[in-house]
Write a structure and sequence with these properties.
CATH superfamily of the largest domain: Type I PLP-dependent aspartate aminotransferase-like (Major domain)
Distance between the termini: 57 Å
Protein name: 8-amino-7-oxononanoate synthase
Helix content: 25-40%
Bound molecules: pyridoxal-5'-phosphate
Number of strands: 14
Strand content: 15-25%
CATH class of the largest domain: Alpha Beta
CATH architecture of the largest domain: 3-Layer(aba) Sandwich
Pfam family, one: Aminotran_1_2
Organism: Enhygromyxa salina
GO biological process, one term: biotin biosynthetic process
Cofactor: pyridoxal 5'-phosphate
Number of domains: 2
Order of helices and strands: HEEEHHEHEHEEHEEEHHHHEHEEEH
Structural class: alpha/beta
Length: 398
């Protein structure tokens, strides 16, 4: 039986109308967003409409998202918040294991990196604290800080906080690899901030799995960041995020971070998969995949430099290679032309990036065949040339 569709109420109708106008305006500015609806996905290969494409825009840097490990059968759900009765042995075990492997006293597992970043800052920062935040920080960090009572100060991209400014606690919120630019802060600056008595909130979303035997950029620092956020949906190919800190801080987060307190515990189905990915990444298979990844990154960076004269890419010791286009419409056109040739690269536009910062955010994976990287580079260079974008910058200066 077809369910009855209720007629819209005047309020619902008015809301639809308001959004119709807003969406129309977005379309006029080439700012509309739509999920691309891939089908028949096999790793980086899938169909978009009637085209077979290869993705150069996923965060599956090590090709682990397709892993299907034989996993012990787990209950589907945690059935409640961790603080009620959703706290399971598998949660506690994996938190302990991850914290130990990262050299932290404790870790708290959140359902996603976004939720961790939105939930943790407000639980820790108080009025009188000063939070420095990089201009290009991820939306989740921006929103998380907005929910806190601290005074916020936006830094220029890659700028380090001033040495000493009076505050109860001086926090530095930053990503170790910026999701849209592929560069990152100098580790020495992070160490200096910590050495001078400040706290560091470091998001390792695009570094975990890739550096220091998979332990991320923080593992290369002299001091431990105060808070380390380790999202698992990128190189680990899973979902969820660990927040690592001291025992004291983690105990506080468990009791006070609203995005942890008022949400159902992470599904136990996911835990063996996270454990499997962590094990792979830390072992010889992780080394093998990282080697493939960096070989592909180097190849693409060299080809784009040589054939399209793209400057600045050598500064990116990451699999994220942005090609700055500037104009929204042109970024969309380039993305569509790449699609015609079988390559999927989403055009990234404001508000994800600053005004006039529209770009192709190209990401490389260990799962790309070297010949595929080569063919992609050839097509991209040809299109950039056609659009007069050869010799463009790969950097968006703030
Ligand atoms: C820097 C950064 N932090 C956090 C997140 C959110 O992580 P998740 O996808 O697990 O919600 C992202 C994802 O885009 C990110 O790029």
């Amino acid at each position: 039986m077809t369910p009855r569709v209720s007629p819209p109420s005047p309020g619902n109708h008015a809301l639809d109308e308001r959004l119709r106008v807003a969406l129309e305006r977005e379309r006029e500015q080439a700012l509309e967003r739509r999920c691309p609806a891939p089908t028949e996905r096999r790793g980086l290969h899938y169909r978009l409409g009637d085209r077979e494409v290869v993705s150069f825009c996923s965060n599956d840097y090590l090709g682990l998202a397709e892993e299907r490990p034989p996993a012990p059968l787990q209950p589907s759900g945690a059935a409640a918040s961790r603080l009620v009765c959703g706290d399971m042995q598998v949660h506690r075990d994996i938190e302990h294991r991850f914290a130990t492997s990262m050299g932290f006293e404790d870790a708290v597992l959140f359902p996603s990196g976004f939720q961790a970043n939105v939930g943790v800052p407000a639980s820790l920062l108080q009025a009188g604290d000063l939070a420095y935040s990089d201009a290009l920080n991820h939306a989740s960090l921006i929103d998380g800080l907005r929910l806190s009572s601290a005074t916020r100060r936006i830094l220029g991209h890659l700028e380090a906080p001033p040495r000493a400014e009076p505050a109860a606690v001086r926090w530095w919120f930053v990503e170790s690899v910026f999701s849209m630019d592929g560069d990152g802060p100098a580790l020495a600056d992070l160490d200096t901030h910590l050495a001078l008595g400040g706290c560091v909130y470091l998001d390792e979303a695009h570094a975990l799995g890739l550096y220091a035997n998979g332990r991320g950029r923080a593992a290369q620092m002299s001091h431990r960041p105060t808070i380390l956020v380790a999202p698992l949906g990128k190189a680990l190919g899973c979902a969820g995020a660990f927040v690592c800190a001291s025992s004291q801080v983690c105990a506080w987060i468990r009791g006070h971070a609203r995005a942890f307190v008022f949400t159902t515990g992470v599904s136990p189905v996911l835990i063996p998969r996270i454990a499997h990915a962590l094990e792979l990444v830390a072992g010889p298979e992780g080394d093998r995949r990282r080697e493939l990844l960096w070989r592909n990154v180097e190849a693409l960076r060299t080809l784009l430099g040589e054939r399209a004269g793209l400057g600045g890419l050598e500064r990116h010791a990451s699999p994220i290679l942005p090609v700055l286009v500037g104009d929204n419409r042109r970024a969309l056109a380039l993305s569509a032309e790449l699609l015609d040739r079988g390559w999927h690269v989403q055009a990234i536009r404001p508000p994800t990036v600053p005004e006039d910062g529209a770009r192709l955010r190209i990401t490389v994976s260990a799962a790309h065949e070297p010949q595929t990287v080569e063919r992609f580079a050839r097509d991209l260079c040809e299109l950039l040339d056609r659009h007069g974008l050869a010799s463009a910058s790969s950097r968006c200066e703030p």
